[in-house]
TrEMBL record:
SUPFAM superfamilies: P-loop containing nucleoside triphosphate hydrolases. Gene3D superfamilies: P-loop containing nucleotide triphosphate hydrolases. It comes from Sphingomonas horti. It comes from the Bacteria. InterPro entries: AAA+_ATPase, ABC_transporter-like_ATP-bd, ABC_transporter-like_CS, ABC_Transporter_VariousFunc, P-loop_NTPase. The lineage of its organism: Bacteria, Pseudomonadati, Pseudomonadota, Alphaproteobacteria, Sphingomonadales. This is ATP-binding cassette domain-containing protein. The keyword DNA-binding does not apply. Residues 2-211 form the ABC transporter domain. The keyword ATP-binding applies.
Length: 211
């Protein structure tokens, strides 16, 4: 369980999130809300990529920063935009991430091939990332987040730029992982997941409330 207790975030003098309270349990939680409302900011806080200005984030009952190492050991994070190493192949990049996560590389490689097969990226795993389209990059960022079957999966717009059929394949993997993990994602295409999510939260006007 990932819990937020009166978590606020400011950039300079600007308050983006104001005393957010929520317990993210096992299952899929969707974040919706207007552009610029703070959804990606909230995901960065959950993924420990940034720290709250005040308030407390807890993982499995222990507050950060004490729980940060335990959280990161079982974190999969797919940010919205990331600089990928253009000269590596997708498979080399995935193994680089697997090594950073401390995963057993043969098992991680097998898992990467299974994931990429499921989301239609299998034929491209030995190609250099420099040759990848926007949708291929998005799927690669998603695939690396699933490596090691994380108990906490944070996904920022994983199906943006994907056609409906490919997005449905990505959604299927997300729902599969959400059976055993805390999964939090932003999406502008939440309708496809209606009825299958634990909660839908609306981020708006600095607050985060049930939609
Ligand atoms: N590092 C930063 N420094 C200053 N302001 C920032 C920073 N990151 C985000 N912001 C501001 O915080 C606000 C929330 O941005 P954020 O990207 O979290 O919104 P969002 O809800 O994810 O938007 P979108 O749906 O368009 O992706 C925006 O006004 C943005 O300009």
């Amino acid at each position: 369980m990932l819990s937020l207790d009166r978590v606020s975030k400011r950039y300079g003098r600007r308050l983006i999130l104001d005393r957010v309270e929520h317990d993210f349990g096992t299952g899929l939680t969707l974040l919706v809300g207007p552009s610029g409302a703070g959804k990606s900011t909230l995901l960065r806080l959950l993924a420990t990529a940034e720290r709250p200005s005040c308030g407390t984030i807890g993982w499995d009952g222990t507050p950060l920063p004490r729980a940060r190492a335990a959280l990161r050991r079982t974190l999969g994070y797919a940010p919205q935009a990331v600089d990928l190493p253009e000269d590596l192949t997708a498979r080399e990049f995935a193994m680089h991430i697997a090594a950073l996560k401390g995963l057993e590389l043969d098992a991680a490689d097998r898992q990467f091939l299974q994931i990429t097969d499921a989301i239609g990226l299998h034929a491209d795993v030995s190609n250099r990332i420099a040759t990848f389209s926007g949708g291929m990059r998005r799927r690669l960022i998603f695939a690396q987040a699933l490596l090691g079957s994380p108990r906490l999966l944070i996904l920022d717009e994983p199906t943006a730029e994907l056609d409906r059929e490919t997005a449905a394949r990505v959604d299927a993997l997300i729902l599969e992982r959400a059976k055993a993990a805390v999964v939090v994602m932003t999406t502008h295409a939440g309708d496809a997941l209606a009825g299958k999510v634990r909660a839908v939260l609306r981020v708006d006007d600095r607050r985060v409330l049930p939609a």
